[in-house]
Amino acid sequence: MDILVADDDRTARFLLSSTLIELGHSVTEATNGCEAWEAWKREHHQLVISDWMMPGVDGLELCRRIRAEEESGFAYIILITARAGKANYLDAMDSGVDDFLGKPFERDRLLARVRVAMRILDLHQRLRLANSDLERRVEERTAELEKALQVKREFLSRASHELRTPMNHILGFAQLLSLKKGLTEKQEASVRQILESGRRLLTLIDHILGISKTDPNELTFEGSGAPRLGNS
To answer: Is 108 left (phi over 0), alpha (psi -120 to 50) or beta?
Structure first.
């Protein structure tokens, strides 16, 4: 892991860097907050170990800038400080600091905090990958559902068209029959029944076609369970 170390104290910076290099990490050194900020913008280091008190941009300001970077991803920040007190602690936490290391630092404490940072960074990476995989699956499933809905709409539209055409012919012939003179009472009743049934069926076909063109989210269901258009 490439770790960014920021400290204006040359000796402290050397001790930090040499200890981290012994652990197998690579180290980018910065002699002040401004250098650290420029280095982080170039590399987006996952682990930053910074002194609090530095000229210009101090450790808290460096932390705030990193946290404010929208596309930065996650960086774990350890602040090195000789400051004590609840107010200082809360101020640092509000700035986005993840952990603290006393100054002068102890090797064992440094190693322990780096191990914690690596575990958290690993968990964060796993979570990010899991989220990416979940988003991919949701997109794939959404595409499958949209394809299925499109097939359904095309089928209903085609079926409605195939049903409407012969039904219009039947209604047309029934209307011609109703105008014919000399029909018996029974024949007239049969023609009326054909017209009424045909019109009801045509209305149902139109309703099915309307549903096929409607977004499923716009459908509501009546007590019978039959769907109807949301605006109807």
So the answer is: alpha
CATH 1.10.287.130 spans which residues of the chain?
Answer: 143-229
CATH, range 143-229:
1.10.287.130
CATH fold label, 2-105: Rossmann fold (3.40.50)
pLDDT of residue 207: 77
Q: How far apart are the first and last CA of the chain?
A: 62
Q: Looking at the DSSP assignment, which residues form a beta bridge with residue 79?
A: 50, 100
Token pair for 124? 């964060």
Digit-coded pLDDT (tens) for 184-217? 888 888 888 888 888 888 888 777 777 666 665 5
Torsion 156-158-161-163 (CA) sign: negative
Contact between 95 and 63 (Cβ < 8 Å): yes
Contact 48/40 with Cβ under 8 angstroms? Answer: yes
For 47-68, the pLDDT digits (tens) are: 999 999 998 899 999 999 999 8
CA–CA dist 22, 24 (Å, integer): 5
**pLDDT for the residue 18:** 93
The residues with which 87 forms a beta bridge, in sequence order, are none
Q: Find the DSSP H helices in 48-184.
A: 59-68, 86-94, 107-179
Q: For CATH 3.40.50.2300, list the domain ranges present in the chain.
A: 2-105
**Entry pTM:** 0.61
Q: Identify the pLDDT of residue 132.
A: 87
Q: CB–CB of 102/82 below 8 Å?
A: yes
